[in-house]
Amino acid sequence: MAIDRNSLRGKLFIIIFGAHTRQGRLFDLCLLWLIILSVLTVCLESVPSIRTNYHPLLHTLEILFTVIFTIEYFLRVYSHPKPLKYLFSFFGIIDFLSIIPFYLTFILPAGHFLVTIRIIRLLRVFRILKLTSFVHHAQVLKTAIIASLQKITVFMLTIVALVLIIGTVMYVVEGEEHGFTSIPQSIYWAIVTITTVGYGDLTPQTPLGQVISSIVMIMGYAIIAVPTGIVTVEMSRSQPISKRTNSIECLSCGKAMPINTNYCSNCGHQLHE
């Protein structure tokens, strides 16, 4: 269903959903700050000393944020050409879940713990990715990750086989008397060690086990760099033509234009200051 852009509903749609417009970008940026402040309020409220001294202020701020997000939610439903499509979309569900726990506390006395779900509204930050200047870069990253998927899968299967072998060897070397009570327990130690996390809850006691542990830790540093290198190579291949030829990339839509062009032929954005 088409919306008259000159009507109130149409103007609201342009502001709320039109991330390519100046008003839409301003709206999304204001929304981003409100989300951050709201999440910060929830986090501060969980600190006992702050909650004791500033509970009235934090509670008032939370009511204010909830009212703002509730109004914004209903404005989105009202201004969307297909309200049901928005209601059952990913961000529509996230928007609903971000406000409903606060109201449940008035209905269900035991539902106060559901307020912690409010922090899920931080996921709404991803709507900012709809800002035009970020779309192209997000696409480059997405293309690089998809192109790297097969190589990373092979790499991960190799790591799985490696930790199985290392875990089995450590189970034989250390034995149950040193805490390596089973092969799964030893595999857990191998994963913790090869990722250089090192919880320290399980450590080798024998000289041979310590030597193997040292080798595994050194291997861990090299292994961590492999996925990063794979994705980096694919990202360099995914760079737009404008990075490799005598052309300039439009910061608004990402289209490559000749270097001597002043305006983008796709969106009309000024290419040179």
From TrEMBL:
Domain Ion transport: 25-236
One of the protein's GO biological processes: action potential
GO MF term set: voltage-gated potassium channel activity
Subcellular location, record wording: Membrane
Keyword tags: Ion channel, Ion transport, Membrane, Potassium, Potassium channel, Potassium transport, Transmembrane, Transmembrane helix, Transport, Voltage-gated channel
Listed InterPro entries: Ion_trans_dom, VG_K_chnl, Volt_channel_dom_sf
Transmembrane segments: 26-44, 87-120, 152-173, 211-233
Domain of life the protein comes from: Bacteria
Main location: membrane
Any Gene Ontology CC annotation: voltage-gated potassium channel complex
Membrane topology summary: Multi-pass membrane protein
Pfam families the UniProt entry points to: Ion_trans
PANTHER family linked: POTASSIUM VOLTAGE-GATED CHANNEL PROTEIN SHAB, VOLTAGE-GATED POTASSIUM CHANNEL
Name of the featured protein: Ion transporter
Organism: Dyadobacter psychrotolerans
